[in-house]
Write a structure and sequence with these properties.
The chain is α/β, with parallel strands linked by helices and 311 residues long. Helices cover 33% and strands 22% of the residues. It is globular.
Length: 311
């Protein structure tokens, strides 16, 4: 599909926080060497896609503080179009801590991004993109963010653009039982959906990828990820499975975003199902070898694992 001269092929929308993590595979309880990185599902996807040579944009709101300015500079420095990112002087930039092997700690309540609403995308040419990408994190942030997601879904549905949706279930953001129906409905309204089998088990009691497809018949393409086992793509009545790449995992957080980016970039290049899944696994592996969500250079990866990055 042709696009205007300066229109990104992929547009992502969602919150990015400042992530604090150790430089190596060491718990925050003892680590002395800490790093700051942008951390957000949608900006991660945009960064990876841009790194793979495809024009991408990220839409969001950041606090009018030094963390927000640092995030914007970092994401822009990775080649992402940030012209639709706004600064909110009345709200802070969210922060989270990634503790390798022990999960994450979020400090995002009242963040600038949680104040986003349908007006956030009023001037964004969603209809000119080939793919618009959302995640299930955004509707959980606030009522206004949920309204933003609905507005984006409606606009994309009325256009030639493809709506990509990563379920990205975050239990800490939802009241008990609220997430399952909302995320199921959003997934069935999308054209392309990514979901982890573990998420589908927690949300809807699905035991197999086929169970997930039965529950989500709406999307023309469904990708079910099963950790270190592999991923299955469903299109119409056809399914394709591709095993994961064996990896010595340093930290899994962020790998799902990298998988989605690798897959989407391959799709934008016209790749077939198996090649799309392989591209997702290859990109995810880079993040699994690092404590950051995006391996920009060797400094982000433990020295013992650097050779694996070039295998």
């Amino acid at each position: 599909m042709p696009t205007p001269e300066n229109a990104p092929r992929l547009i992502t929308i969602g919150e990015t926080m400042m992530m604090v993590t150790s430089a190596g595979a060491e718990s925050l309880a003892t680590a002395e060497d800490l790093r700051l990185h942008p951390g957000g599902a949608e900006s991660n996807v945009a960064c990876h896609v841009a790194d793979l040579g495809i024009a991408s944009a990220w839409v969001s709101a950041l606090g009018g503080d030094v963390l927000g300015r640092r995030i914007l500079a970092s994401v822009r420095g990775r080649g992402v179009d940030t012209r639709w990112v706004a600064f909110d002087p009345a709200a802070p930039t969210g922060v989270y801590f990634k503790d390798p092997g022990h999960g994450v700690l979020y400090y995002r309540r009242g963040s600038a991004a949680s104040r986003m609403d349908p007006s956030t995308v009023a001037g964004v040419p969603l209809e000119d993109a080939e793919i618009v990408h959302l995640s299930g994190i955004t509707p959980a942030l606030s009522a206004t963010c949920a309204a933003l997601v609905d507005a984006v879904v409606d606009r994309v549905a009325a256009s030639a653009a493809l709506l990509s949706f990563d379920v990205n279930y975050r239990p800490s953001l939802w009241h008990d039982g609220d997430a399952a129906p909302v995320l199921r409905e959003l997934a069935n309204r999308a054209d392309l959906v990514f979901v982890g089998l573990d998420e589908a088990q927690s949300l809807w009691g699905c035991a197999t990828p086929d169970d997930v497809r039965e529950l989500l018949p709406g999307p023309g393409t469904l990708v079910v990820k099963d950790g270190d086992v592999g991923a299955t793509e469903y299109t119409a009545d056809v399914s394709v499975f591709e095993p994961a790449i064996p990896t010595d995992v340093v930290e899994p957080v962020g790998a799902g975003d990298a998988f989605a980016a690798g897959y989407l970039a391959a799709r934008l290049r016209g790749a077939g199902p198996r090649d799309r899944l392989c591209a997702g696994h290859q990109r995810a592996r880079l993040v699994l070898l690092s404590t950051s969500d995006f391996v920009a250079d060797a400094a982000d990866a433990p020295s013992a694992l650097l050779t694996q990055l070039t295998d």
